Amino acid sequence: MQVSSGTAHADPVFWNTCGQNMRWPGNAGYVAADLQPSRFVVWTVRDYLDDYGIWVADVFVGRTRVDHKEQTYNPHGRVNPVDLKSGYILHFVIQHIDTKGNKSFSDPAAGCIIP
Description:
By secondary structure, this protein is an all-beta fold. About 0% of the residues lie in helices and about 45% in strands. The protein contains no helices and nine strands.
């Protein structure tokens, strides 16, 4: 079962609750996020071999995009507590084409339920 970023409310069977030191590894790299005591979520994404190339990163809360990056180095950012709606899914959708043309995508499960 897979829940899309368009889902407004979370399916607790699929998603874990957001917290500190979250990481979603894949075969090419990982997405990491941290729900800080200030309620900001800081996030980053890394490629195991090549952090450069073309990156497109979108962060959603339910159906609403709350962060977007298009750049030539690994993206990172933070989500304001105002945008974090309790019970909704915080979901990361990352695409990367490295300097050798290899394409990779974030794990579809790169996300969590906002407490």
